[in-house]
Amino acid sequence: MAQIVGERVKIGDAIVDYEDKVFEDIQAEPGEQAWIMMHTVPFEGSVGLVNMLTATRIRRKGFDTHLVLYGPGSLMAAATRGYPRVGDEAFPGEQQYNKQLRTFMDEGGHVYACRFSAAALYGMREIDMMEGVRPINPLDVLDAVLTARRAGALLMQTWTV
Prior knowledge:
It comes from Oryzihumus leptocrescens. With 161 residues, this protein is of the alpha/beta class. It is 28% helix and 17% strand. The protein has one domain: Hypothetical Protein Ychn, Chain: A. A five-stranded parallel sheet has the order 4-3-2-1-5, with helices on both faces.
C-alpha cells in the first residue's frame, strides 16, 4: 500500500500561491472598448459563465464592454428561467446566468441578443428577454465584430456546439 505524504488539508488552507501575479494589472485607457461574442449553449459547459465573469472583470477594469449573445447564447438572456416559477432556483446555480448578466448590466455593461436565434431556433420572444438586453438583427452580429475592429477594441470570440 502506498504511503501518504503530507498533512490532510482543511477548509481555508491555500494549496497554491495565490499571491504570485505574473502580468501587470492593466486598466482601460479612456474610451477603450471590449467586445465579447458568445455562441454557446447555456448549462452545457462552463464557457458561458466564465465568459460572463470575464466580461464583468473587463468592465471593472474600465472598458466600455459589450456582450453579444447569438446562436444558443441568446438563451442566456431568457427572463423566463426558473422552476416551478420564474426566478425560482430548482437547483443551485440555475439562475447563475441571469444573476451574472444582471450584475454586468447594473455595472454599465451592454448586452445584445440575436432575435433570429431567439425566435427561429428557440421560440423565445423579445419580451422574454431580460430587461436591459437589446435584441439585435442577425446581420448585426457581423457588424458588431466590425464595429469592434474599427474601434481598435479588445475582441473575444468563443464558440461551443
